[in-house]
Amino acid sequence: MQHSSQLPYNPESGPVNNRFPSELLLQSYAPITPVPCCESICAHIAPDFFTLWEEYEKEAGCETGIPYWAAVWPGAKSLARYLLSNRELVCGKKVLDFGSGSGVVSIASCQSGALDVVANDIDPIARFVASQNFSENNVSVRMTSDNMLTSTTDEHFDLVLVCDMFYERSTAKPLHAFLESCINKGTRVIIADGTRPFTPRECLLSLYSEVIPVNHALEGMRERTVTVFEMKK
Question: Which pTM does this prediction carry?
Answer without folding.
Answer: 0.90
